[in-house]
């Protein structure tokens, strides 16, 4: 049986298989959404199917003062409240 890496959502703290979560990379220029999971830099994982995980308050643990900008970017890229659009452009 193949090993499936588990990662924790930075917002809700649930452990899920890496492929089920969306990686967000913190760069000097801001945030990049990394659906491939291969971009260099400090990254955190967020549930793409749970809008509660995209709130500013829950993202402060990872993003600090830039949590509001990250929250707005996630809302825009993940399709608002339904969370059905999980195929994201990187950037």
TrEMBL record:
Top-level taxon: Bacteria
Gene3D superfamilies: YlxR-like
Coiled coil: none
Classification via Pfam families: YlxR
SUPFAM superfamilies, per the entry: YlxR-like
Ranges where the YlxR domain occurs: 7-74
Name of the protein in question: Nucleic-acid-binding protein implicated in transcription termination
Organism, scientific name: Thermus aquaticus (strain ATCC BAA-2747 / Y51MC23)
